[in-house]
Specification:
Chain lengths: ~425, ~290
């Protein structure tokens, strides 16, 4: 029954931490406004360096940055909401927006954005901008963007007879087969598709045009023809032994890629930096990124619209000052500085013209991909549904259930999750 | 009146502790119990009107949830295999360490107790390497005797045994210390008398050590059962319940439902089902022991 204590303890901890803030403000800042800004992970550590410039331009506004680890972020933000102690501005993974919107925890930003020269819809990738909108209103400003592309070993593909990355599913399949055939006697695979990631099966589903859910996101649509096709394609990677099943074979991703245990991997922008640091020098010119292949020839495959947004708490008493900070962080120049600090890809399209990004050959695939991104269903239950997709993808990949049975079971589970949503829509 | 003074003293001394327990234990437990009959979730957090009293629906849904039965099966598997094994290992270690033949007793006591006080997260990192299918120590030793590569944490059949071995290694030191305390209470004269009567080591263990350790064993059995029913940390850090939910325990399921998905009502229902299970098994264990004692 330990769990019963937990909310209490968290609430107490939050109370204690808010007490620290109030006493932590030195008298010198009392005259101006202090705004609290929660940023997550590496962003939280690095954004501090942008603050002095903001404070110089906005005398009287003092920004207190709190870095929150990613692993605890979701719980902390929700508990802060429950304890009525959300900061003025905070970073939100853009798939979390529907959840905080449901709680009425975040402020609509349309009025403020309408007057802004910086935060304009046409300044952003449209797919990413769309993830920040719900019910016709804007609830977050894209801060940095994120999507999934294909990372691959050029030398292994060349050995298999391909000088270019796969562009269609058919090519993808051929390349995988050739890689498995042409590899040495050592155990090796073509792809790495960790069964602990929901993104690959979901992305493949989006590529076939499946809406994932149906009837105003009230029911699962996974047994539908389109998702079925994608799901079958996904499981084939395992059934044909193009990808290893089980997580433990690859404890160190970089080491395994370096030794050629696998040649292709679907991942996000953070791995550009990691690959540069962690792959041996001899391999540095032997890897590349490419937009994802798609099911139909001639059409790019879509990927996931990811990234983080800046949101303003509905409970904030300093919304104007908070908006100024959001606007400042959205300036292309600041986005570029931030890119140099963290490697996070700028949400402002014009920031990509800078040489720092234009010369990054690995970033190009991301730029192309970002023009073809789709947002997952914008409902608070999405993460829970995504985990179900992941579970059944693993079950079907191991052959424990047939594709049809797995998808039927997936729809059944998802419909249970969505029961509350149906009731709420009905009650309205 | 002297009684008044007594009452006042009782209130003064016990009051604060009772108030704290009441506020931080009984109130939350009661709240959780009530919550288990609602569908309290993320929506309700935003607006209480979105919480509905659903009667027994959480419980009924729970009994229809294949994941719940999977988790229950895993937990019982862990309990039935891991519990007795862990007690046996603790008892074995305790008897060995009490033997006069063993030197450096306190050193070994320290060594065997060390895993209990080591952070599980650090332990998990080391054990993940031990269990690594390609480079792990365990598979290396097994390969010497011709056993083919086993993906310990990645194979649904082997993940739970791997977790059990880890849990036993991590926890047996604690019970061992309690057994040692129990063993020290057995008078040496009994063993001497038995030896004079010609009892061998096994007979002495069987006829003296085990019966006289019975109260300690019951205590340990109940504590171990309660602890093992609440299996959480080991799968949480090692496998996150995978592969194919083969290491998903009841408490891990409760954690996921409650703090990951904020299905607080459902999660509270799981908590009370777990509570009922532990209560029933504890009562049975105590009854069995009493029945044997008479």
């Amino acid at each position: 029954m330990k769990e019963a204590y937990l909310p209490g303890i968290l609430a107490a901890a939050l109370l204690a931490s808010s007490a620290v803030w109030t006493t932590g403000c030195s008298p010198a800042q009392e005259k101006g406004t202090a705004i609290h800004f929660w940023a997550l992970g590496a962003e939280g550590e690095n954004v501090q360096q942008l603050v002095p410039e903001f404070e110089r331009r906005n005398p009287g506004i003092h920004v207190q940055v709190h870095a929150i680890p990613w692993t605890a972020a979701h719980e902390k933000l929700l508990t802060a909401y429950a304890g009525n102690s959300l900061p003025d501005v905070f970073q939100l993974g853009n798939t979390w927006i529907p959840e905080f919107l449901t709680l009425h925890a975040i402020e609509p930003l349309d009025t403020m954005a309408a007057q802004s020269r910086i935060v304009r819809p046409d300044a952003y990738f449209s797919g990413i901008w769309e993830t920040n909108r719900a019910d016709g209103r804007l609830y977050g400003v894209p801060w940095y963007v994120d999507t999934r592309v294909l990372f691959y070993r050029t030398d292994i593909l060349a050995r298999a007879g391909f000088t270019h990355p796969p562009r269609t599913w058919d090519e993808w399949d051929q390349i995988c087969r050739r890689i498995v055939e042409t590899g040495g006697p050592e155990e090796h695979f073509a792809m790495l598709l960790p069964t602990s990631e929901w993104a690959p099966p979901v992305i493949l589903g989006m590529q076939t045009g499946s809406a994932l859910l149906k009837d105003d996101n009230c029911y699962g649509n996974f047994s539908g023809e389109q998702f079925h096709k994608a799901f079958a394609f996904y499981t084939e990677f395992f059934r044909r032994k193009y990808a290893p099943i089980g997580l433990m074979n690859v404890v160190n991703l970089y080491q395994s890629l370096a030794e050629g245990y696998f040649a292709m991997y679907i991942s996000g922008p953070w791995n550009i930096g990691e690959f540069r640091h962690r792959l041996p020098a001899a391999l540095q010119d032997k890897w590349m990124t490419a937009p994802l292949p798609g099911p139909d020839p001639g059409k790019p495959g879509v990927s996931l619209a990811g990234g983080s947004s800046l949101a303003i708490a509905a409970s904030s008493t300093n919304k104007d000052a908070a908006w100024r900070l959001v606007e400042f962080l959205s300036e292309p120049a600041q986005q570029l500085t931030f890119y140099k600090l963290t490697g996070d890809l700028p949400a402002q399209v014009s920031a990509w013209n800078d040489t720092a990004l234009a010369h990054n050959q690995y970033a190009r695939a991301f730029f192309d991909q970002l023009n073809a991104v789709v947002s997952p269903p914008k409902i608070p239950q999405w993460e829970q549904i995504a985990m179900k997709v992941q579970d059944y993808a693993e079950i079907a990949s191991r052959g424990t259930m047939s594709t049809e049975d797995a998808l039927a079971a997936l729809d059944r589970d998802v419909n249970v999750i969505l029961e509350k949503r149906r009731w709420m829509i009905h009650a309205r | 009146m002297p009684g008044d003074g007594r009452t006042r003293a009782l209130v003064v001394f016990l009051g604060p502790a009772l108030a704290a327990i009441g506020l931080f234990f009984f109130v939350p437990v009661l709240a959780a119990f009530i919550m288990s009959f609602t569908d309290f979730d993320i929506y309700s957090l935003g607006d209480f009107r979105y919480a509905r009293f659903v009667g027994l629906r959480n419980y009924l849904q729970l009994f229809e949830d294949p994941l719940f039965w999977k988790a229950m099966g895993n937990t019982v598997y862990f309990l039935i295999v891991g519990g007795p094994l862990s007690i046996a290992v603790s008892l074995g270690a305790a008897v060995l360490l009490q033997s006069r033949l063993v030197r450096f007793q306190s050193f070994f006591r320290f060594v065997y107790f060390a895993p209990v006080v080591t952070t599980l997260v650090a332990v998990a990192i080391v054990w993940r390497f031990i269990y690594h299918p390609r480079f792990g120590l365990l598979n290396f030793f097994l390969s010497l005797v011709g056993v083919h590569m086993i993906d310990w944490l990645g194979d649904p059949h082997w993940a739970m045994p791997a977790i059990i071995v880890l849990a036993i290694w991590k926890n047996f030191g604690y019970n061992m210390i309690i057994f040692i305390a129990g063993l020290q209470n057995i008078p040496a004269s009994m063993y001497e008398a038995a030896s004079i009567d010609g009892a061998n080591a096994w007979q002495r263990f069987r006829r003296i050590t085990l019966p006289l350790l019975a109260p300690t064993t019951v205590f340990i059995a109940i504590i171990t059962m309660i602890g093992y029913f609440q299996l959480f940390a080991e799968p949480y850090v090692m496998t996150q319940g995978g592969p194919l939910n083969s290491t998903l325990s009841i408490v891990l399921l409760m954690y996921q439902q409650g703090f990951r998905w904020w299905n607080m009502g459902y999660s509270a229902a799981i908590a009370f089902v777990l509570f009922a299970c532990i209560l029933v098994v504890s009562v049975i264990q105590t009854r069995l022991q009493r029945g044997r004692g008479e």
